[in-house]
Amino acid sequence: MFFQRVPEYKLRLPTPEEALPGRSEPLPTANAHTVLGTPIKPPFPDGMQQIIFGMGCFWGAERRFWEVPGVYTTAAGYCGGLTPNPTYEEVCSGRTGHNEVVLVVFDPDKVSLDDLLKVFWEAHDPTQGMRQGNDMGTQYRSGIYFFGPMQHAHAEASKAQFADALQEAGLNPITTEVMPAPTFYYAEAYHQQYLDKNPGGYCGLGGTGVCMPRG
């Protein structure tokens, strides 16, 4: 398979000195989810929980989660970097440190966190480092950004479980970062529910073919 040559600096996180300055004001974005009809910004209804996933290009990743029953809303955005309120072009430059991510707001009475983690692990390849398929750069790394100790415990347990399944299949170790949810910056309006607005648009998601073990 042929991969486009990517500058080395795009495959490592920038230092604070290298990071772009960003801006103090949030980027303009959408307010309502075009598929679910729900708000993509808080406040969310009582009882909803949130988690953030990075799994490659956020266009396809967001669609995977808005299709899950029990998910209240989703939003495309950026997190895990240094630059405040970055633009898409800045993130793609490799000089913000941000990951392309999806905020998932869900009703735990209708869908469990473990069900969402199963979608996460099976829908992408978590072994590729700063890459997902042909998409290369720090913004395509695999990541789980959790809220609270319960989510942390479930994320780490699922990571260990899926790592064993990958090893049994003869695949590489997991490179997914698991960390407390940093500031989530909403992406520009045209990125929100992109594949709903552009049904034939690009989706770079591709799993390993390995399923999350039961239990």
UniProtKB/TrEMBL annotation:
An annotated Gene Ontology molecular function: peptide-methionine (S)-S-oxide reductase activity
Statement: the UniProt record of this protein carries the keyword Oxidoreductase: yes
Peptide methionine sulphoxide reductase MsrA domain ranges (all copies): 50-203
Record bears the keyword tRNA-binding: no
Keyword tags: Oxidoreductase
HAMAP family for the chain: MsrA
PANTHER family associated with the record: MITOCHONDRIAL PEPTIDE METHIONINE SULFOXIDE REDUCTASE (PTHR42799:SF2)
Purpose of the protein: Has an important function as a repair enzyme for proteins that have been inactivated by oxidation. Catalyzes the reversible oxidation-reduction of methionine sulfoxide in proteins to methionine.
Family: Belongs to the MsrA Met sulfoxide reductase family.
Protein name: Peptide methionine sulfoxide reductase MsrA
Organism (species): Halopseudomonas xinjiangensis
Primary gene name: msrA
